[in-house]
Amino acid sequence: MAKNSANGDHQTTTKPPPTPSPLRFSKFFQPNMRILVTGGAGFIGSHLVDKLMENEKNEVIVVDNFFTGSKDNLKKWIGHPRFELKRHDVTEPLLVEVDQIYHLACPASPIFYKYNPVKTIKTNVIGTLNMLGLAKRVGARILLTSTSEVYGDPLVHPQTEEYWGNVNPIGVRSCYDEGKRVAETLMFDYHRQHGIEIRIARIFNTYGPRMNIDDGRVVSNFIAQALRDEPLTVQAPGTQTRSFCYVSDMVNGLIRLMEGENTGPINIGNPGEFTMIELAELVKELINPKVEIKSVENTPDDPRQRKPDITKAKELLGWEPKVKLRDGLPLMEEDFRLRLGVSKKI
Ligand SMILES: NC(=O)c1ccc[n+]([C@@H]2O[C@H](COP(=O)([O-])OP(=O)(O)OC[C@H]3O[C@@H](n4cnc5c(N)ncnc54)[C@H](O)[C@@H]3O)[C@@H](O)[C@H]2O)c1
Ligand SMILES: O=c1ccn([C@@H]2O[C@H](COP(=O)(O)OP(=O)(O)O[C@H]3OC[C@@H](O)[C@H](O)[C@H]3O)[C@@H](O)[C@H]2O)c(=O)[nH]1
């Protein structure tokens, strides 16, 4: 029953889901939990798949168009009897029978989401509509990975879920942040109108192994630059802040949210806040003390500050991050060294 809403004022009754097959109710049939992960070949998605596959009662189906993700991230599961990988673009309808949907499909790095902005909007709007239609047809619970970018260039600090944000509707980032805002709206309208069980996570900057080496996001850029002896490119003014969450903490938070009773939106992130200059200095100290730090031009509408208020995640999910930035960076360094073929100097 989708009765426990974050705001309490839109209680709904969920109709019983249609039956995919009468076999599911047969005496000798022990159904596994069938879980769809859209965007499961990407950075967060592939770590989520690893965690879900640890449970022998889970069957995982990944759909991905491989725009920013890759089969390599899932290679240990390809061929596994409880795992399926399907090349599919979520802007097209999808027919599968599942119990839960983790809907992650969307490029997340600014350089990739700005590359084809119209496609980014289609992915967020039509892609989310398609996944909600699927959830409605089969009675699945659906979790959307929304973003701290729904707060735009925030005027409230740290950001609580009640804050409505300060977003430029016509800027170069709008395809992503307005796209995610519409995706959140669609989730709530399907919940109110059709009783769909929804969960919304507002994810703050996440980092870890398997990020694309040339992903363009700041942590992957700085680590790759430090390992290649290239200057760390701090975009001006460098005093802008972000709060970085290690990927294993993020995955645990997403699963807690899916399994719990709250619709969200709930901030999931690490409140440890750093300026970009501080981040560059930390990467330099931990990875390459000889590397230069240089200031470069910034891109339009870069949010000046970002830090999650995670009171709700703590109280409602019993979740908080465990990995400090200083401990997470070396784990990512190890993965980048392997992929770049740069060994540690002793
Ligand atoms: N990593 C972060 O810091 C962060 C922060 C906030 C929100 N998020 C959200 O989390 C999700 C995953 O982010 P990520 O960092 O793993 O990014 P990612 O780019 O590594 O993964 C996104 C995946 O979605 C796939 N994809 C993109 N468009 C698709 C489409 N139309 N159809 C099917 N697949 C498609 C990509 O190929 C990729 O595998 C995204 O929804 C993103 O908006 C991430
Ligand atoms: O080389 C770089 C790259 C980026 N930066 C700065 O680092 C900060 C973070 O930039 P990133 O590109 O990593 O990510 P952003 O915080 O701007 O956006 C992210 O926010 C949340 C998610 O939804 C997405 O993963 C992504 O859009 C920005 O202030 C940017 O100007 C640098 O200083 N140098």
Walkthrough of the structure:
The protein is α/β, with parallel strands linked by helices. It has a single domain, classed as Rossmann fold (3-Layer(aba) Sandwich), CATH 3.40.50.720. 34% of the residues lie in helices and 16% in strands. It has 9 helices and 13 strands. It has helices spanning 43-53, 110-113, 117-138, 174-194, 218-227, 247-259, 276-287, 311-317, 325-340; strands at residues 33-38, 58-64, 83-87, 100-103, 141-147, 198-203, 206-207, 232-235, 241-243, 245-246, 266-268, 273-275, 293-296. It has a 7-stranded parallel beta sheet, sandwiched between helices. Helix 3 packs parallel to helix 4 (174-194), helix 5 packs parallel to helix 7 (276-287) and helix 7 (276-287) crosses helix 9 (325-340). The longest helix has 22 residues, at 117-138. The structure holds nicotinamide-adenine-dinucleotide and uridine-5'-diphosphate-xylopyranose. Uridine-5'-diphosphate-xylopyranose binds at residues 108-110, 147-149, 205, 217-218, 221, 233-235, 240, 242, 276, 298, 302. The site of nicotinamide-adenine-dinucleotide has 28 residues, from helix 1, helix 3 and strand 5. Catalyzes the NAD-dependent decarboxylation of UDP-glucuronic acid to UDP-xylose. Necessary for the biosynthesis of the core tetrasaccharide in glycosaminoglycan biosynthesis. Keywords: Cytoplasm, Decarboxylase, Lyase, NAD.
